[in-house]
Amino acid sequence: MFSFLGVYALDRGTAISSGSVIEVFARLGVSEEAVRSTLARMVKRNLLVRHRLGRRVYLGLTPHAETVLRDGRRRVWETGAVNRDWDGTWTVVGFSLPDSRRSTRHDLRSRLVWAGFGPLQSGLWITPGTKDVTGVLDGLDVDDHVTVLTARAYTPTEAADLVAKAFDIEQIARRYRAFLARWDVPDPLPDAPDDLVRQLLLHTDWLQLVRQDPHLPAEHLPDDWPAIRAEQVFHARAEEYVRPARTVADGVLDELIP
Length: 258
Description:
By secondary structure, the chain is of the alpha+beta class.
């Protein structure tokens, strides 16, 4: 759903009818019930806002959703899959939350993963580079339980050791190889009904990859790091699908300017 909204709703100033969203996702094999449930949750979480025209319901992005989607767009199109500009610094987040706040602890860990952090040891997470974690902590009410620092590794600690301890390199590589197995072939997803479906699946696969990739420094990764090829394939396929997918979407989407 985020992939769909990022491509067809962000920065367009329109709202899309729930019926046409259901029609798009039917092409992906997603049931009407699942789509309606997802849209309802997104309204409840202040990601979508309803507009009515007669009996039809249209859904537009909230400012909160636009912020989330722009962050995703930066991850996809600007940050890149390989970090070639690392200056040797790390952002370190240490935290200790009581068991009574287990849910908050889970939310914090999830946000840290999304922000590219890995667990170095219990309650101590790191990510390469200098990161503003204000957005990570926003709304969790954990300022009194969290310490944020920037640091550099010194002997006997090596940067390569930190990468190996805090991040599962092989698991990250496997995800990129799985992406290549699906998309770096002559005819990806031959059973898909059209290029709109291929476009949305491509963007979803790639967004899931980059949101789980901590953007580790290239100098501490294998020379044959599969993210390099995967990024090239994503850009080539995205360019290939953009026009035919837009043609299909124009024939399906019912939009309203609120």
